[in-house]
Task: structure prediction
Amino acid sequence: MSRSVRAVVDLAALRHNLALVRASAPAARVMAVVKANGYGHGLREVANALLSTDAFAVSCLNEALCLREAGLLHPIVLLEGFFDVAELRAIAAHRLDIVVHADWQLEELERARLPHPLRIWLKVDSGMRRLGFPPQRVPAALERLRVSGVAGEIRLMTHLACADDRDSDYTAAQLATFDQASAGLPFERSIANSAGVLAWPDTHADWVRPGIMLYGASPFADARAGQPKLRPAMTLTGRLIAIHQLRRGDAVGYAGTFVCPEDMPIGVVSIGYGDGYPRHAPTGTPVLINGQRASTAGRVCMDMICIDLRGLAQMPHVHDTVTLWGAGLPIEEVAAACGTISYELMCKLTDRVEFEYLESDVKG
Ligand SMILES: *Cc1c(COP(=O)(O)O)cnc(C)c1O
Result:
């Protein structure tokens, strides 16, 4: 008997969300960001559902090779470029695009003897202060690429630090900085992540780089109206494996952090931090049983969580399915309860979770 911890991924939802990217940024080409195992959804399966994208973006060579092994011929961009010069041979052989963000990478490229030039995305630091060349060093970096002959086509990119905050003026400042750095240069440009796609049309440029919105979660902390209707791709479920009728004053779980305020039913669900459910989920984190809201009670264990079954219209039964996030329970809400973001919850699922892929036929 399996533990019945399941992530059901709706491939039609992924395609629906890609269509929303296209509708939101109609003039841009799309680089679908599938790093970190497709944000935890399964790299190959996600990529195969998104074949109509113009390119894929991943964070490292292994992820790119996985896509090539799956037979995908799209352009694939390594968002951090190469980490080690030894990767360049495979990068060239598999026709991967690289981001170049640092002087040490330029030095390695100048020394490298490549069989053919590479497509290079020169990364400009417009204010994120993580990777990239500050604007004043862009001309010298471009000159080094030109002289070295390693660059086939050159493109420019930058990354937004505050696009998820619709009230921040930082995005406009970054855009102005990037515009200045790229003024007069004949290269294609990329700026926008999901938040840029949805909230900052001026950042769409030639290529958009959506990640989280493809998986159906909002990049914004606040759920403001007027957002296109993303469809969550993943529903994570466990099973109710025990129900106890406890007495007022009974302590539940490790360290007894939840003490029953009255006589009440407590359920035990077959999922825990060993599956990637966040251990720091506090008492009160929402779950869904048979369409009814309930919430966690006490500490998350490695293999199980306890839930408060008070006040449900229908009492659930052992073996009932419990939804941790997805259909009927937005992952954003669970993430907010846990003091984190949906991205982290998605990425942290472990390989104990059984993945299942389906195509819903719901329209819109
Ligand atoms: C992860 C990433 C993205 C996608 O960001 P989302 O917020 O998930 O849309 C875009 N660009 C770069 C450089 C990234 O690292």
Remarks:
- Residues 157 and 190 are 5 Å apart (CA to CA).
- DSSP finds eleven helices and 18 strands in the chain.
- Residues 33, 35, 79, 159, 193-194, 209-212, 219 surround pyridoxal-5'-phosphate (CB under 6 Å).
- The mean pLDDT is 96.
